[in-house]
Amino acid sequence: MPHFGLFLKRALGMAALGLTLAVPGLAQAQQAPANTLDAVRARGQLICGVNTGLAGFAQPDSQGVWRGFDVDYCRAISAAIFGDPNKVRYVPTTAQVRFTALQSGEVDVLARNTTWTLSRDTALGLDFAATNFYDGQGFMVKTALGVKSAKELEGATICVQPGTTTEQNLSDWARANRIRFTPVVIERLEELVAAFVAGRCDAYTTDVSGLAATRSAQPKPDDYLILPEVISKEPLAVGVRQGDARFADIVRWTHYLLLSAEEFGITQANLDRMANDPRPEVQRMLGKNGELGKMLGLDNLWAVNVLKAVGNYGEVFDRSLKPIGIQRGPNALWTTTGGLQYSPPFR
Amino acid sequence: MSDITLNASAKVAEAAPRSAPISQVGFVGWMRANLFSGWLSTAVTLLLAYLIVRWAIGFVDWAFINAVWSVPNNQTQACRDLRGTGACWAVITEKHRFILFGTYPYEEHWRPALCIALFVGLYIVSAMRRFWRKELALIWVGVLTLIGVLMWGGVLGLTYVPQERWGGLVITLILATFGLALAFPLAILVALGRRSKLPAIKALCVIYVELIRGVPLISLLFMASVMFPLFLPEGMNIDKLLRAQIAIILFAGAYLAEVVRGGLQSLSKGQYEAADALGLSYWQKTGFIILPQALRLVIPPLVNTFIGFFKDTSLVLIIGIFDLLTAGKTAIIEPAWQGFGIEVYLTVGAIYFIFCFAMSKYSQGLEAELNRHRAR
Amino acid sequence: MSQTTIDPRSLRAPPRRPLRLSWSDERVRAIVWQILVVGIVGAIVWWLWSNTVHNLEVRRIATGFGFLGREAGLPIAENLIPYSPTDTYFRALLIGLLNTLKVAIVGIVLATIFGTLIGIARLSKNWLLSKIAGVYIEVIRDLPLLLQLLFWYAILQGLPGPRQALHPVGGVFLSNRGLKLPWIEWQDAHSYALLAFALGALFTWFYRRDAIRKRILDGKPRPVWPVALGCLLVLPVAIWAAAGAPWTVDWPELRGFNFRGGLNMSPEYFALLLGLTTYTAGFIAEIVRAGILAVPHGQWEAAQALGLRSGQVLKQVVLPQALRVIIPPMTSQYLNITKNSSLAVAIGYQDIVSIANTTLNQTGQAIEGIAIIMLVYLSISLSISLFMNWYNARIALVER
Lengths: 347, 376, 400
Hints:
The complex is a heterotrimer. Chain A has helices at residues 2-26, 36-43, 69-82, 98-103, 118-123, 165-176, 189-197, 208-217, 245-263, 271-274, 280-285, 292-295, 302-310, 313-320, 334-337, and strands at residues 28-29, 46-51, 59-60, 66-67, 88-93, 109-115, 126-135, 137-142, 157-160, 182-185, 203-207, 224-226, 234-241. Chain A is of the alpha/beta class. Chain A has two domains: 33-135 and 235-337, D-Maltodextrin-Binding Protein, domain 2, CATH 3.40.190.10; 137-232, Periplasmic binding protein-like II (D-Maltodextrin-Binding Protein, domain 2, 3-Layer(aba) Sandwich). In chain A, the strands form three sheets. Chain A has a five-stranded mixed β-sheet with strand order 5-2-6-13-7. A five-stranded mixed β-sheet of chain A has the order 10-9-11-8-12, with helices on both faces. Chain A is globular. Chain A starts with a helix and ends in a 10-residue tail after the last helix. Chain B is mainly alpha-helical. Chain B has two domains: 18-65, no CATH class; 90-375, MetI-like (MetI-like fold, Orthogonal Bundle). Chain B contains 16 helices and one strand. In chain B, α11 packs across α13. By secondary structure, chain C is mainly alpha-helical. Chain C has two domains: 89-185 and 248-396, MetI-like fold, CATH 1.10.3720; 186-247. Chain C has a three-stranded antiparallel β-sheet with strand order 1-2-7. A two-stranded antiparallel sheet of chain C has the order 3-4. Chains in contact: A-B, A-C, B-C. β1 (28-29) of chain A pairs antiparallel with β1 of chain B.
């Protein structure tokens, strides 16, 4: 009996000790996320949380290379920090883990069609740096159903992704319009779409951009109809950890840079010529004049690097979203066509 | 003797040794005894036979005769025209490498394939009784290291493949095998702890085992994927696969501990007393006398528990890790291939079945063998 | 370290001496090692805890269960008690718990029946039946449950739409919206009748127990069936008739997009129930088979020698004995069915895990959400364990 305890303790103690030593050993130590910029620089890589696969926004192509609208934002931020758009590691995040992934420092920035809401901004430990896409929630039905308006959906079965603002908007809208519906909630977007296509639901609701992406991916897009009603505001924003204003500034101004570049007509192709553009704001933006880049804690030529990598906002949009049938709509520039995208001055 | 026989056969023909009636022996007899022993049995047999034949014909029609085996570049119209009358095996022809290896770089697929072969080899070697000795642990360490090197690469001219791109069958095997390899020592310690006479140790082990066994694996996996990052100090981060692996180890540890405890309990008290009488210390007693006997006893239930984990690793689908089942599901996301779930699930099911069935048969054989040994 | 048990070693042990503060005193060593281990485990827990608290603080994540009182806003397809998206998270979680219990309890009943039948079929003298049962058990146990659930769900999704629903019998519709059955319109009279039935069942049970006790005393048989008939059939029917005998059948019919009226079984629930039942039945069949085989052959022969019919042998002699072997592993199967019902989240049935998952997603309260899931399952597991232990103790009492 004496040895009983002794050795058991020793064994358990050693196991516990081993565990304490092993866990940090297995973990990749990173620098404190309180200063994300330094951590990213020290790591030599930006970790970007993206969607698990949404056509147009973030999707690995057949070679496994990530492409899409949100992915271009990751590339732009990487170019701003490192001067190289490829120093990014993409972490696909589900709707469920996206916030914890950001909170815990698993990702540095969340570019993953996330709607900016008050409760998310305050209670979830993240800051929204910039709205890169203004969206709204809509419905899609099969053309064969003969429905022309969302108001006709009384009694329908509707496919909706749980845990998103979409779900709550749907409830609010149905209540306001006295429409009864049966929800079908499936966590994974792909399975939800599969259920809709299989006819499990009469209608499928998500952001209009997502509907367009899904529709265009179908073998016969004309079999599906996006209803005209848009029932909510969905400002999709890029998120960073709360309390890191410096990094939030970098993300925010990277977005504004893309907008301003479009405003001034700077494109990936004419970037070199534009470097000699006489307009003062262009000169400041591209680092010919002043120290705007240094003020952000970046290289003064950051803007050139970003635009060389991804082009301006319009180019980013046209590259990824236009092919799947999404119009500029509210995402047009305020200065030119009265859209919502608006950049503060580079001064 | 010959004349007696002769006489007998000449006198009474009935006395000659007769074979049993044809209706009692041979195939017919067997049928009568086992298939048509009464009106109820006959009815059941006929009904089942009818159902089986009908179902088998339907299945052969669907799976072979009407099936489409391949289609040119994702033109699945031929499959859709079947409208359920035939299987679309073209989805497997097209996606089999994706299902097996996930998003692993295409030209490097030989590496996970080799890993799968190594895993299978490891199982076979571990199953052979002549390898049941201490060196087996070394083989495990060696093979598992080799698998790690193969998968990650970055040395010996192999290109580096980040963990995010691993997927398919090899992830299932990794989760199950590493889970077992690491949960096993934990389970032994916990099982010993639960039988300890020291109240604090015993309480800790009981709490651990009962807590884990009282909740579903999913909740542990959720915890690993959502809560775990909050447990660690700021700036420290553990990879998603590793987090799921830790959850599986903790889960497996609790269940294996109960299996091991069963073995410890079934040993006769005389073994403990004899070891004490020899003046062995606790660790000597446990290591040389108790554990070798107890573990030998619990190998069949251990294999069964392992089969359970092998199947349970499929739950990582819910937290988005790319195992065999997830790969199968992802393969049918592409719009062209949507709606061919049954073909993919049958294929993935066949892979799981091959592994589980082999282990299950092995465990049954082993049990019979061990019981025979004990019965003597 | 109580010394209450009479251990031969403790008899030989020297009389209790005062604790010596020396390493050679085993009790000192035991205490030191226990303190050390508890300390290390405690330190790890404290370390994790303080990290969590620190992380929550630094990341400004709100904590606490205050969110339970907030409006949930999440639609739920299947609810046993009234629910609308304006209700609180607490109520939504309650609906989830009820949905879990709904699938678990029905699953336990069906799996027990189905599993027992297969277990007996496995032991059948009919070779074909026995082989088929064997193949079923082997195949079902060697495939992951999640795969089976997805498989069933894929099959149910492949059914025709509501407008082309399969319509085997009048009032029954099978489509990719689920199974629709006619159902009576529920009124108060039905509730009263049901209550009367429940009370009647309770009374019958007590009466039967009493009758058996008296029969053991004086040997006179007392038939139970007249009382049972009165309590279980006549009384409820009388109450129902007295309340006006309402009888309106609610036929499902296609109106708009979906069927209205009748009893609905959604494809998600149906797939989950089907998967859980068929999977667990495979394990229960093995348990039942092992239990029956564990009854010594002599018991069969003795019962037959007494002139009992084979049905009686099984019911009166073999099963009661087999039950003692069957109950403990059966308990763990019941626990498994309950825990496995959490896989509902993969096919979109809104059980407690699915709703807690959505809740933690909407509110960001990860720790609270997971704590709720674990607490719910621990309580269910504990309840089932306690009940089965009580039942096990009851049937084990016969043994001396």
